[in-house]
Specification:
Helix content: 25-40%
Number of strands: 19
Mean pLDDT: 94
Number of helices: 13
Oligomer: single chain
Bound molecules: guanosine-5'-diphosphate, manganese (II) ion
Radius of gyration: 26 Å
Shape: elongated
Largest sheet: 7 strands, antiparallel
Low-confidence stretches: none
């Protein structure tokens, strides 16, 4: 689960990592009131969206008065930042910036250890630093059995070339707190970019990027409650309302399987033969007309879909039932513009195939294996 900046900063604050005071608002008037409450001085108005690079996209703006905060809030609310529409703003006391550093901790799956990264070249994308100036980026693993040791913080700070003793001390303290924060919240990533030094020499976190392991959310009910369902894909939300198990992907071959395992394999096989799956969709155990209609309704609401691949392995699900479901769905929905490849195997497969053959629908293409069906669905999507 990805957290918004304001949520990540809330956790940072709980672990003693310095952050600026701020307020969450969702209207320009709210921004004005928040700026007033924060002392009436300059504030920064920040789009709360689950994507980075907000600054460059116009989603972070300085305002020198509460009135200006209202105007900037008006500009930013409703903005579309790479598909994320801004609905909430974080209004924060503006900081003067002398230096911008970068500090993060994440999982290095290869090494099976948490990995700290630190550089004094902050404020820009870390990938850019890694590419253009790799020597400026200090990487350091923490042995999880040993736990955090003070030398880790010192190695990062000295390795990064921080020479001011007060900065060294503050950053080392933040590193230690960030480690605790990472472990105790079951995080996968905690990133501070930029970690700033003010002209007075004060170090603090100006941004937060925070990901928590979904499997651990039961241990953090307060964090689990933060999940924002309005940020989910609208099609996935619609699917959930319809009781259809559906995950949107970005290709053009619509996929229906029965059972999560077979459906996932179908996604893989379509990709394996050079196609791009449009979705994952599991019909579940049923395969009755109602379930098929609902699934096809969801899948064809995605305008990218060009062909559809049914991959059914009958067990308890009977293939003749699925075949009747497909025909019923074709009667009820206008599916004429979609080529539909159907592979039926397992219980009553022969009857199912016969039912489809008898119906002689011109856009229904039978396939005898999963691989053959995937190839055909991909070709049909390409030629559509
Ligand atoms: P991101 O673009 O999504 O990473 O958003 P950030 O929170 O990192 O903000 C983008 C940039 O806005 C930062 O790198 C800063 O340069 C600038 N910024 C953010 N907050 C302040 C602030 O309080 N004062 C000043 N002067 N600049 C800020
Ligand atoms: Mn940032």
């Amino acid at each position: 689960m990805d957290l918004y900046e304001y949520q990540g900063k809330d956790l940072f604050r709980r672990f003693g990592i310095p952050v600026s005071e701020g307020r969450l608002v969702d209207t320009p008037e709210g921004a004005l009131a928040a700026a007033d409450e924060l002392g009436g001085g300059p504030v920064v108005v920040k789009a709360q969206v689950l994507t980075g690079g907000r600054g460059k996209a116009g989603g972070v703006k300085l305002a020198d008065s509460p009135d200006d905060a209202e105007a900037k809030a008006n500009d930013i609310l409703g903005l579309d930042i790479r598909g994320h529409v801004v609905r909430k703003l974080w209004i924060e006391q503006a900081s003067d910036i002398a230096k911008e550093y970068y500090l993060s901790i994440t999982f290095d799956r290869g090494a099976k250890k948490p990995l700290f990264m630190f550089t004094t070249q902050g404020g820009v994308e870390i990938e850019q630093v890694a590419e253009e100036n790799p020597d400026a980026l200090v990487r350091l693993h923490v042995d999880p059995l040993e736990g955090f040791q003070p030398w880790v913080a010192r190695a990062l700070v000295y390795g990064g070339g921080v020479d001011d003793p007060s900065e060294q001390k503050q950053i080392a303290a933040i590193v230690e707190k960030l480690y605790r924060c990472f472990v105790e919240t079951d995080a996968m990533l905690c990133e501070i970019n930029p970690l700033i030094v003010t002209p007075d020499g004060e170090v603090k976190a100006l941004d937060s990027k925070f990901t928590i392991d979904d499997s651990s959310l039961f241990r953090h009910p307060d964090v689990a409650e933060w999940r924002d369902t309005t940020a989910a894909d609208p099609l996935e939300t619609y699917a959930r309302e319809q009781g259809v198990t559906y995950v949107k992907l970005d290709g053009d071959v619509g996929i229906l399987g029965n059972g999560a395992g077979l459906s996932m394999s179908t996604v893989d096989v379509v990709a394996h033969v050079g196609g791009r799956p449009a979705n994952f969709c599991d019909l579940g155990g049923g395969g009755d007309a109602e379930g098929v209609v609902k699934a096809l309704d969801v899948i064809t609401r995605d305008p990218q879909v060009k062909s559809i691949f049914f991959n059914i392995f009958g067990g308890i699900t009977r293939c003749d039932e699925v075949a009747r479901g497909i025909l019923a769905a074709l009667d009820r929905l206008d599916m004429s513009r979609y080529p539909i490849v159907v592979r039926l195997d397992g219980t009553n497969a022969a009857e199912g195939r016969q039912i489809l053959a008898d119906a002689a629908k011109s856009n229904v293409h039978p396939a005898s294996t999963m691989l053959e069906g995937a190839r055909e669905a991909v070709e049909l999507a390409e030629s559509a």
